[in-house]
Design brief:
single chain; alpha/beta; Rossmann fold; Dimethylsulfoxide Reductase, domain 2; Barwin-like endoglucanases; 5 domains; six-stranded mixed barrel; 30 helices; 32% helix; 20% strand; elongated
Length: 882
């Protein structure tokens, strides 16, 4: 992950190659920066930013292309604004009217995906007007004559037709860049995230060489990275084709160096890229995946297919700081520490290696990623993972990586250093390619214009392009949990030009549906001239309106990056739909996993929900539970599984409306969506042929006991089921339980139906009569399970009770995962949820539950007040309409 430190990325690739014996390792640079590495390596020999951020101030002209710098890289945007105060000229090339357009001397509003045509057109002007740097080209470059010949295909009339940019603007921009030196180019994902992303990067490199704007101060080709440690993750070899420092895995001499250092043979073939790994998982060619700090369920193109690929895995491990949308599909979740809880280094966009210093202790059971990787490796019996501090890892990196050879924690205490830094006394390298290029002579690359892989047509007449907001980061794993940021930007929107909005009868704030060949998303429209006609824009931060459910997975043939920036869509107005009282649930995409398929009110305040959750349904076993989060502002709470159907891809839960969260959940209707649902969690019930068993279920526990009774019956047991409720109208599911039981006993506290009493009463009668009972399973509230346990204890009948992680199953009340069993602290989430009821400290559980009651009552009262206010507001709005 690019959010992990250099040391952690180094260990991840070492573990993959050494322990897993494969080069199938990749990270999110594949989806943002891979064309930079591929393109600049081919042209210059090194795929990184050539200059430094502080040099922007001294450039005479700045060319920003494919970067909404103020949103994606606001610190660098400030440097640009400072430079403009000194009279520097600014060229901006972007389909959207971004903030920097207000400061630009020239704004080139080219159509999405036409970058090569635009850049080649500018270079045609530079060559035709003899503005190129002949001396630099002759001394430092090769293949210029072939390249110059390729420019003939880009006459300005043709370029204007392709790009939509008037040719006089192309000429003016070319003259400024070529003559107002030093000139620097800044670009980001608007250049790279195309099926011709590598060509785009090489076109930029060609233009820098053509004008001699490389290898000198305040010039260069300067990609702005997509995450804090994209550069470092690439440097550390978290890629399928290279070790650290871009040392290729197929080179025998290099591979032997790493084999000698690590003491093992290493795989020889280049591994699969990120997208290829998921495709192989979908085809069952890859069975297991270890994912660290990534969220492909939201970040990958065609997210539904990405999700299906992850669901096809036999074994899936996720290591992260939060329970992401992807983690919800995992078999095992390893809790990791955040950047503030560990030491290490990051390498930023200008190749500067910087120290990360631990500020606080790790929260809860979380551990630094490097520590977790070491522990797993040692359990595999691997050598070389007995490490106590990240500084030891950096020493190993320096010993194997020439460009990091002079890096140590001691040196980094003073200041960050820019690689290459090959020796201990080396000061670092602020500017690359000063005397010569990494490959010797830089190579001009002839290019041709290739249209995007998917173009608008009659059915899908608009282009969707995606990007970022200044208020959220990537898939919102961290920023969506910040109340202040959510207040500023609470949801995703669809930017649409007023001309298109008018023709579609869409007003600002209307709910619209955006549909592509792959999926559809519902969000609010934002009518603005920032997006040009025939182009709509969305950010990809929001799980409720996941833009990447729409995007095209077509790949650049060289770098294997998908086409995030161009896909064909249509936009439809939904109508004056009154928002559902639960808020965010109407905003989820139709492709969401967690759609309510069926709903039934079983009894007062008791509701059954059948939910679309294929990954959970495929793996569920009796006794397990799921953790539910209804919306962004809700808590996470556990509910036992009442049923599941792998073929139907559904699970069934039974909830009792007691807390705020369960009440919100129960108010959802068919076709609405739950924000988060993770599972199956917990150890499954131990099922075997015990002989004669009693399955006791109370209230919402009736639903949870059904799959256990069924499994016990299928294993050959004689099953006696006992269920309880306060009165007849609170009973449910007698018939399903009767079908899986040899005998069903129904009890009510008021005697309105069946046996007057509670589950433990007929159980006690059976035992006192001397009837043989070999095992008891109890599901329900703590009090019910405690009484069953106390009833059976004198008779020595083992009684299994279910204590899920928050102790009060299905009520939405917040508690703790710890439970005392036979005097030993256990964790229900990993050691349970089932325990021997005779060994549980019931008094401790009761005291914990009591401590949360006042908070829960307050929360429920506040929520009900909000519902009343929303209902009153809706009523007022309806009256105004009529």
């Amino acid at each position: 992950s690019a959010k992990c430190t250099n040391e952690e990325n180094y260990l991840a690739q070492k573990f993959t190659r050494m322990v897993m014996a494969t080069n199938n390792i990749d990270h999110c640079a594949r989806f943002c920066d891979a064309p930079t590495v591929a393109g600049l390596t081919q042209v210059f020999g090194s795929g990184a930013m050539t200059n430094s951020i502080n040099e922007i101030n001294d450039a005479t002209s700045i060319f920003v292309i494919g970067s909404n710098t103020t949103s994606g890289h606001p610190v660098i945007a400030l440097e640009i604004k400072k430079a403009l105060r000194n009279g520097e000229k600014l060229i901006v090339a972007n389909p959207r009217e971004i903030e920097l357009c207000r400061y630009a001397d020239i704004w080139l509003r080219h159509s999405p995906g036409s970058d090569v045509a635009l850049l080649m057109g500018m270079m045609r002007v530079i060559v035709d007007e003899d503005l190129h740097d002949r001396a630099f080209i002759e001394e430092r470059c090769e293949n210029f004559d072939v390249f110059r010949g390729s420019l003939k295909e880009f006459d300005l009339e043709k370029v204007e037709k392709i790009t939509g940019v008037p040719k006089d603007k192309i000429i003016e921009a070319a003259r400024i860049y070529a003559t107002d030196k030093p000139s620097t180019i800044l670009y980001a994902m608007g250049i790279t995230q195309h099926t011709h992303g590598t060509d785009n990067v090489m076109a930029i490199a060609n233009m820098a060489m053509l004008t001699g704007n490389v290898g000198k101060p305040s010039t260069g080709v300067n990609p702005l990275k997509g995450q804090n440690n994209i550069q470092g993750a690439c440097d550390m070899g978290a890629l399928p084709n290279v070790f650290t420092g871009y040392q290729v895995v197929t080179n025998e001499e290099i591979r032997k160096k790493f084999e000698d250092a690590w003491g093992t043979n290493l795989p020889r073939e280049i591994g699969l890229t990120l997208f290829e790994i998921l495709e192989a998982a979908y085809k069952k060619e890859i069975k297991a995946l270890y994912l660290i700090g990534e969220n492909p369920v939201l970040s990958d193109p065609d997210t539904r297919h990405a999700q299906e690929s992850l669901e096809a895995l036999d074994f899936f491990v996720v290591q992260d700081i939060f329970l992401t949308e992807t983690a919800q599909l995992a078999d095992v979740i390893l809790p990791a520490s955040s950047f503030a809880e560990k030491d290490g280094t990051f390498t930023n966009t200008e190749r500067r290696i910087q120290r990360v210093r631990k500020a606080i202790e790790s929260v809860g059971n979380s551990k630094p990623d490097w520590w977790i990787i070491c522990q797993i490796a040692k359990r595999f019996g691997a050598k070389g993972f007995d490490l106590e501090h990240p500084s030891q890892i950096m020493d190993e990196i320096a010993s194997l990586t020439p460009s990091y050879g002079g890096i140590s924690y001691q040196r980094l205490e003073e200041r960050g250093l820019q690689w290459p830094c090959p020796t201990k006394g080396h000061p670092g390298t602020p500017i690359l390619h000063v005397d010569k290029f990494t490959r010797g002579l830089a190579r001009f690359t002839p290019l041709e214009y290739k249209p995007p892989a998917e173009l608008p047509d009659e059915e899908y007449p608009l282009v969707l392009t995606t990007g970022r907001s200044p208020y959220h980061f990537h898939t919102g794993t961290m920023t969506r949990k910040v109340v202040g940021l959510n207040a500023i930007e609470p949801e995703g929107v669809v930017e649409i030009n007023p001309m298109d909005a008018s023709s579609l009868k869409i007003a600002d704030g209307d709910k619209v549906k955006v549909v592509s060949h792959r999926g559809e998303v519902i969000a609010k429209a934002r009518v603005t001239e920032e997006s040009p006609p025939k182009v709509v824009f969305m950010t990809f931060h929001f799980a409720e309106s996941p833009a990447n459910a729409l995007t095209n997975p077509a790949l650049d043939p060289i770098s294997k990056i998908p086409e995030f920036k161009v896909c064909a869509v249509k936009v439809e107005k939904i109508g004056n739909m009154i928002e559902h009282r639960s808020g965010l649930n109407r905003l989820s995409s139709e492709g969401s996993m967690f759609t309510i398929l069926a709903k039934e009110n079983l009894a007062p305040a008791i509701t059954m929900l059948k939910i679309h959750a294929p990954a959970i349904a495929r793996k569920a076993q009796p006794g397990q539970f799921v953790v539910v989060r209804v919306d962004e502002v809700g808590e996470r709470f556990p509910i036992s599984l009442a049923d599941w159907d792998a073929e139907e891809a559904s699970i069934t839960i039974v909830i009792m409306e007691v807390g705020t969260s369960t009440r919100k959940l129960a108010r959802l209707d068919v076709d609405e969506h739950i924000l988060n649902l993770v599972g199956p969690l917990g150890l499954p019930a131990h099922i075997e042929n015990f002989g004669k068993v009693v399955c006791a279920g109370g209230c919402y526990g009736i639903g949870a006991i059904l799959p256990i009774a069924r499994a016990l019956k299928e294993s050959g047991n004689e099953v006696i089921s006992i269920i309880e409720a306060r009165s007849k109208n609170q009973l449910y599911w007698q018939e399903p339980l009767h079908q899986v039981s040899d005998k069903l006993i129904v009890t009510t506290g008021d005697g309105s139906y069946g046996y007057k009493g509670w589950t433990y009463d007929p159980l006690k009668e059976m035992l006192e009569k001397g009837e043989r009972v070999d095992r008891v399973f109890a599901h329900g509230c703590n009090f019910m399970m405690m009484l069953c346990s106390e009833t059976t204890k004198p008779f020595g009948v083992k009684t299994i009770v279910s204590l899920n992680p928050i102790m009060v199953d299905g009520t939405g009340m917040c508690g703790a995962c710890r439970v005392s069993v036979n005097g030993v602290t256990k964790f229900a989430c990993v050691d349970g949820p089932e325990f021997d009821g005779h060994e549980v400290d019931w008094d401790l559980l009761a005291s914990r539950r009591q401590s949360y009651i006042e908070e829960e009552i307050s929360s429920l009262e506040w929520w009900e007040c909000q519902q009343w206010r929303q209902a009153a507001a809706r009523s007022t709005e309806v009256k105004k309409e009529f």
